[in-house]
Structures are given as structure tokens and as C-alpha cells.
Amino acid sequence: MSNRKIFFILMIFLFALAAVFFLIVNPFGERKESKIFHVGLLQMASTVNANIEGFKAGMEELGYEEGINILYDYKNAEGDMDLTKKYAKEIVAKNPDLIFTNTSPATQAIKDETASKNIPVVFSMVADPVGAGFVASIQSSGNNLCGTSCAYIDIAPKRLEFLKEAFPGIKKVLVFYRPEDKSGAPATEAIKKAGQKLGIKIIDKPISNSDEIKSVLEALAPGDVDALMDPADSMVTANVDSLVMASRRLKIPLIMMSDLEAEKGATITYGVDYSDLGKQSAYIADKILKGAEPAEIPIEMPRKFRIVMNLKVASEIGLEISDDAIIRASRKID
């Protein structure tokens, strides 16, 4: 082999080696530090933890690894409205790339704080985003918010109907709500209208804090009411332990919304799949972090609903759930 050929082969080898080395060290042609996204998380109570967990799981599925390319600033107000507003200020002050909220009170607090700022907000667990004034329409928010609705006002009558199906003998149902709550108040009105059709008297009790809920529950005597119902008011939901205690003491059913509440002792829960709604919201967040404007993204409705029955608690307090209702359960706790 001539020296010229040897030189030519050697040069090709060196060029190939250099190319491989370049791709290993700098695979995309220009060395850049990957962006780390900062996302604020604000929720009203631990009863909606599954929604936050679903959101984070959805983000991970989309390639956002906590501690690697995304950092979360998580705040939980545990049913305290003043704390919700305080946490909203703290999250917004850090100027995150995006804020995820769940429940109407948390969303309202963040909306107020971001009114003059260009921080995108993705909400979840909001019963009526248009009626609450969070967005201009389902098609376009017209502002920095978008997200997923839990549709609890729409399904409020169905929840009462199911309670009646499960316990045909009920005649009086106690419902707590806050008049200013953008979910609980309108849902209570829908429940009252449904009660008239079903022959059920709805005893609606306006409250402003947890102490008022506990006071009313402690004063109840057997026979005063036949069932307790959470209309989807986040403050009421945060008092699940007090509601469960009253349900057990009075030996009456309690209907709430999520798996966690059933695990804590609610007789029946009927509501959206919190985790799935969180994942649904993650896909919206991904679009925004990739450059989409919140106003360009329509509000989404829930994909899944769940009915959970705590048959163990029902048996312990002497309640019999109809067979037709049991058949419809997504999950049974024995």
C-alpha cells in the first residue's frame, strides 16, 4: 500500500474519531444548560392531595423530573382562608414559571395575586370556572389562567340521587356551605332543587369557619337529620374528620367526594377521579411551558368519575346500602 493511501485512510479515521468525540461531548451542536422550571403548587386542604400527586405524576410522564429539570414550591393551607391568601403572595413573589392550583379558593387567591403579572396559572378542582369569574369562557380564558373543571355543580343533583338510591329511606339531609364559596354555594342550590324533586328536605347551613361546622355537628341529636352531605366546599371537605365522627355517632350516612375521604370513614364518595384530573392538568401545563399562552387553551372537563363505598364503616354503624348502589361502586372498602 502506498504512503499516499495510508495517509488518506489515516485522515478519514481521524475525522471520524473527532466527529464521534464531538457528538459525545456536545450532542446537539451547541452546549446549553438545560432549563430548570420552577412551579408553584397551592392547595386548600390535604383531602385533595391525590390531585397534586396526579399533576406531578403527569409531569414526570411528560419528562419533567423533580430535582432535575423541575422544582416545586408546595403550599397547603389546610382549610384556612387567611393562610391560603398568605401562601398565594409567597408563591407569586418568587415569580415561578407556572403556578398550579386546586380548588376555587386557592385559584381565587392566586388569580388576585397574579392580576398584574405575567405568570401562567393552571387550575384544577374548580367546579365552575366561568361562573366563578376565573375565565371569560370555556373556549378562552382571556387572561393568564386555564385548566380543568371538576364539574361538581353539574353533578350535584346526581350525587344526591345516588345517596337516595343507596339509602332509600332518607328524608332530611344536612349540607354545610360557605355563601362566598364559588363551588359549595352554587352546588348547594343545585342540591336543594334536586331535593324538591326527590322528596328530600335539604337543611342547608351557611358557615364561615371550621368551628361553626363542629358546633352544629356536636349539637345534632339522633333523628335530627338522616344524612350528611359535602356539596364540594373545600372548607367543609377539610373538616372530614368532624363529619365522620358525627356520622358514626348518629349512625347516619355521609357522602363526600374522594377515595381519601372514604378511607377516613365517609360512607360513600362520589366525585371526579382526583388523580386523573391532575394528570389531565399536567398536559395543559406542558403546553404552556413549551410556549403556549393560557388564553389559547380551552378549559377541559373531567375524563373520569369514581364512586367509593366504605362497607366496613356502614356495617359498623348498622347502615344497609342497597344492592343496586353497591353494583355501581368503582371501589369497595371492606
TrEMBL record:
UniProt keyword terms in alphabetical order: Membrane, Transmembrane, Transmembrane helix
Membrane spanning stretches: 6-25
Source organism, top-level taxon: Bacteria
Protein's name according to its UniProt entry: ABC transporter substrate-binding protein
Lineage of producing organism: Bacteria, Candidatus Portnoyibacteriota
